[in-house]
Design goal:
Number of helices: 9
Order of helices and strands: HHHHHHHHH
CATH class: Mainly Alpha
CATH architecture: Up-down Bundle
Number of strands: 0
Largest sheet: none
Distance between the termini: 39 Å
Radius of gyration: 23 Å
Mean pLDDT: 78
Family: Belongs to the cullin family.
Protein name: Cullin-1 isoform X2
CATH superfamily: Cullin Repeats
Pfam families: Cullin
GO molecular function: ubiquitin protein ligase binding
InterPro entries: Cullin, Cullin_N, Cullin_repeat-like_dom_sf
């Protein structure tokens, strides 16, 4: 890939270009305020600006570190100013719908910034031994959104699952999309999913089946009751495997 002009740029010279031409435009796009996508010429100008701000000897110099730090701050500021306020006022399923929408927007923003900051990501971040740009973006969402909203989100999803167990039709796709967020935030170890959701769900499941057992014995046929027993046993085995996996991860660490 050609990079055009190789004129070195300081952070103070280059960042205003990135702020105006890349970040502000991208935020307008993901927020739905504009439909003007980036042209190939705009992309190359942004990429070249990042390239010229980084050390030309392919070393992680001070300008690269400033650029990384400002990228991290940009993601945190976006989540704090745009994402969190839009979620805080929502309840129940509206909360889940808004969360899914915001997470998808966040992933879109992250993908674009990874393209713009590719040189920094590919050549310099490994030398600085810092988290990748995607990890940094996802961590900003996790810490700032789930640090405040996780209990409400988890309880709302579990409430949906309880309603389905009672025979009510629910929006299964919505519940799955929310659970996908937990998994996507940490695809390698699934720590977010295990710690923040699955343990609570399995505890709720145990309480649900314990409460319902006497009613099933009295009201259901033998075949129906045994199906419920098998269902609960499968969930118990799953919980056991989850705990075993956690112990293995702890030992490996």
């Amino acid at each position: 890939m050609t990079t055009g002009s190789a004129k070195p740029l300081s952070f103070e010279e280059g960042w205003p270009i990135l702020q105006e031409e890349a970040i502000n435009k991208l935020i307008h796009l993901v927020e739905g305020h504009s439909s003007n996508h980036f042209t190939s010429q705009e992309y190359m100008r942004i990429y070249t600006t990042v390239y010229n701000m980084c050390d030309k000897n392919n070393r992680a110099g001070p300008e690269a570190l400033k650029l990384y730090s400002q990228y991290k701050k940009t993601m945190e500021d976006y989540v704090s100013s745009k994402v969190l306020p839009s979620i805080q006022g929502k309840e129940d399923e509206m909360l889940l719908h808004e969360l899914v929408k915001r997470w998808n927007n966040h992933k879109t923003m992250t993908r674009w910034l990874l393209r713009f900051f590719y040189y920094l990501e590919r050549y310099l971040i490994p030398k600085m031994r810092l988290p990748s740009l995607q990890e940094t973006a996802y961590l900003a969402f996790y810490e700032l959104v789930y640090g405040e909203m996780n209990d409400r989100v988890r309880d709302t999803v579990i409430s949906l699952i309880d309603r389905e167990r009672e025979g009510e039709q629910i929006d299964q796709a919505l519940a799955k999309n929310v659970l996908d967020i937990y998994v996507e935030m940490d695809e390698d170890s699934m720590k977010c999913y295990a710690k923040d959701f699955e343990e609570s769900m399995l505890k709720d499941t145990s309480i649900f089946y314990s409460t319902k057992a006497s009613d099933w014995i009295a009201s259901k046929s033998y075949e129906d009751y045994m199906l419920k027993v098998v269902e609960y046993e499968l969930l118990t085995v799953h919980a056991s495997k989850l705990e075993e996996k956690k112990q293995i991860n702890v030992a490996a660490a």
